[in-house]
Design brief:
Blueprint: E1 6-19, E2 23-30, E3 34-40, E4 59-65, E5 71-80, H1 89-105, H2 113-127, H3 132-147, E6 169-172, E7 177-179, E8 191-193, H4 195-206, H5 209-213, H6 219-237, H7 243-252
Helix pairs in contact: 1-2, 1-3, 1-7, 2-3, 3-6, 4-6
């Protein structure tokens, strides 16, 4: 169904860059129209009516007019500011990381209501003060689900045998998950993974996010799962997110 000449949509700004003397081009993420680039003309002028509202890390109601190259933003209203997620630099850096994953996961103008709802929910959780690492892992696992590449953590990806708690496992992202101790697997990168890490990966697949928030876990297990999911998404999306470098620097501080 063609988009009308004038339309209004919910949107989250995934990225933006300055254009010309006073304009700004943004990548908008919307539930019905997917992601697309739009231009806000004159937004960088002090007198612009759009500048204060057209910001990332917020949900907006955006009115647009169809343009030849870019759709043109004509009006903006902030519907959810999520101001508290900006109080912590780590939370804000995590929000940027999640936005980049969304940007890399979808093609332009493809309807992505599920992915939009996922990013929106993740921002709500960060704004509510949930641990940013837990939010990121929950988001990464559900993003993999939405993309149809859910990692296999119940059965061996080579022989399809149910994994047993008393054996050793290896994490093989190019194959899609966990390799059992009986299977040598192909000559690809294979990293050992503990039973506790596999259990936590299962929890991210099966538990609701409120239950995940209450888990008490050793930091070493959380770091292990973080590295496992990063490696998995690196293979699935064919490269690391650029924002990870900044996020890691913030966390080291």
């Amino acid at each position: 169904m063609p988009i009308p000449r004038l339309y209004v949509t919910d949107a989250i700004v995934l990225s933006r860059f300055d254009y010309g003397e006073a304009d700004r081009i943004m990548t908008l993420f919307t539930p019905a129209h997917g992601k697309f680039k739009a231009i806000a003309k004159g937004v960088r002028r002090p007198t612009s009516r759009l500048g204060g509202a057209l910001e990332p890390l917020a949900e907006l109601k955006v009115a647009l007019a169809r343009g030849r190259t870019f759709d043109v933003v004509t009006q903006v209203e902030v519907t959810h500011a999520w101001l508290r997620l900006r109080d912590s630099l780590e939370s804000a850096a995590t929000a940027w990381y999640l936005a980049e994953l969304a940007d890399r996961s979808i093609e332009e103008r493809h309807e992505t209501e599920g992915l939009y709802a996922l990013l929106r929910r993740a921002y709500e959780l960060l704004d509510a003060g949930m641990d940013s690492g837990r939010v990121a892992r929950w988001y990464e696992m559900n993003l993999a689900d939405e993309l149809g590449v859910r990692p296999e953590v119940d059965r061996c990806v080579e022989c399809d045998r149910m994994l047993e708690a008393d054996e050793q496992f290896r994490w093989v992202p190019p194959l899609g998950g966990v390799l059992c101790s009986r299977c040598p697997g192909p000559p690809v990168e294979r990293a050992g993974i503990t039973v506790d890490a596999v259990k936590l990966l299962k929890a991210y697949q099966r538990m609701d996010v409120e239950a995940l928030a209450g888990l008490r876990l050793p930091p070493a297990v959380e770091r292990e799962v973080e590295e496992a999911m990063r490696a998995f998404l690196r293979v699935s999306l064919e490269r690391d997110a650029r924002s990870l470098e900044f996020l890691d620097e913030v966390r080291r501080r």
